[in-house]
Amino acid sequence: MKKNLYFSLLVASIALISCDNSHDEVPDQGQNSGQEFTLQVSSTVLTRAGRVLSGSEAKQTVDKVVVYATDNANKVLFVYTIANWQAVSVGYVDGRKYTYRVLTSDKLDDGTYTLWSYAYSTGAVTPTLPTVGATLAAPLSVTFSTEAEEIFAGKSTVTVSEGAFVADASITLYRQVAGAFGYFKNIPAVVSGKTTKTLRLVARMKNTVVNFVEGIGEHDVNGSSQELTTTANFSTIFDPGYTVYSINLSDWFPAGDTNGDGLLGEGDTGWAKPAGLTGVNVLANTVLGGQFMVPFDKPEDTTLELQLVDSDNAITLFWTVVIPADDVQAGETQSSFGVYRNHLYSIGAKTLNNPANPAAPGVGETEAPEDLSVGQFIKLQANVNWGMIHLLGFK
Fold first, then answer.
1. How far apart are CA 117 and CA 62, in angstroms?
2. Contact 75, 133 (CB under 8 A)
3. For a disulfide at 50, which of 81, 124, 187, 257, Cβ 3.0-4.6 Å?
4. Strand intervals (E) in 162-215
5. Which has the closest alpha carbon to 144: 189, 220, 211?
6. pLDDT in tens, the chain (395 residues)
7. How far apart are CA 361 and CA 354, in angstroms?
8. Which of 388, 359, 384, 383 is nearest to 54 (CA)?
9. Which DSSP letter does residue 329 get?
10. How is residue 250 annotated by DSSP?
11. Closest CA to 56 of 293, 380, 394, 274
């Protein structure tokens, strides 16, 4: 049985189900071919250009969706950009959706086509749009000039017969980057007589290009073009690295260690969440930081290191991040591992970015900042909605 010519587009970190939207109201877009497709973006909440990575919640903040079609010779037939996604789309059970009518001039003839799409946030990512009539030599990629931001992509092969899809078609978009965040309490305020200024996560590598790939990506490394300018060092001498995220502790504890117990944490007065950190709710007397990452292959040495740094940018205390033995892939070790697409690497546990009351988590919620005052393994985990769960730690 042939269907009306439309396709469903979903943005998710794991597969979502598509639905028949043939009865949805379609805005008047002028002359159209009678063919239409529905775009669905799951759990989309627009907060800014990009979003603060502050929990394992698999949400998105995309506000622009691009979809285009190519024929068997990879010639681009049409390109549509759905701008102001939050304004033009309507809510549904899993997020927001929008139905778009194909213009008469763009109507697809009978044949087999590839539908491509990606979703991103204005100002965070600036992809180069394909040109109608051009032949694509390779899948699209995005270059990040500074820090990575969240972006999704996917594709689907469809067949048109007698002006209609042979079957309902859908495109599921998957997250193309990785992420890292840390949630901490009881940070040493002074180490060996040096006052702690910064808590940061440092990585061995940093790629700048994300190459769009298909599927959920259990262990995909789709990053390339390593950044040449390093921004940090590992604890060993002459061992450069890259800052993943950096937490200025005075932003959270402007008065410092007021109770004199040697820790920035419970009992210190003057703690406050930084004013610019909107849409995020944390436990009192904790700190949090996060950043998206372009995936990279396993390095020869330690992959990640957590550090305390003083005002002279000298490392005063450090921990090597390790993964559990069960998560080690072929060729990896617990301390030397790849950073994979659609994986979230977190220290401490925080399921929701903005819970109503972090001190009294609801059902299914977790608020468990990592205690840096004790010599235990510090767990790093990834939410299942990102595609993989890890339990990682320090040594």
1. 13
2. yes
3. 124
4. 164-165, 169-175, 178-185, 187-188, 190-191, 194-203, 207-211
5. 211
6. 444 444 444 444 333 222 333 223 334 455 555 555 656 554 332 222 334 465 545 455 677 888 899 999 999 999 988 888 778 877 765 556 777 677 778 888 999 998 888 888 877 677 778 899 999 887 788 888 888 888 888 888 888 888 877 776 677 778 888 888 899 999 999 999 999 999 999 999 999 999 988 877 678 899 999 999 999 999 988 899 999 999 999 999 999 999 999 999 999 999 999 988 888 899 999 999 999 999 999 999 999 999 999 999 999 999 988 877 778 889 999 889 999 988 888 888 888 888 889 999 888 888 989 999 986 555 555 443 454 433 345 55
7. 11
8. 383
9. P
10. H
11. 380
* Type of residue found at 79: V
Is residue 251 within a helix (H) or strand (E), and if so which, with residue range?
Answer: helix 249-252
Question: CA-to-CA distance for 259 and 267, rounded, in angstroms?
Answer: 6
Task: Provide the residue type at 33 as one letter.
Answer: S
Q: Is 42 helix (H, G, I), strand (E, B) or coil?
A: strand
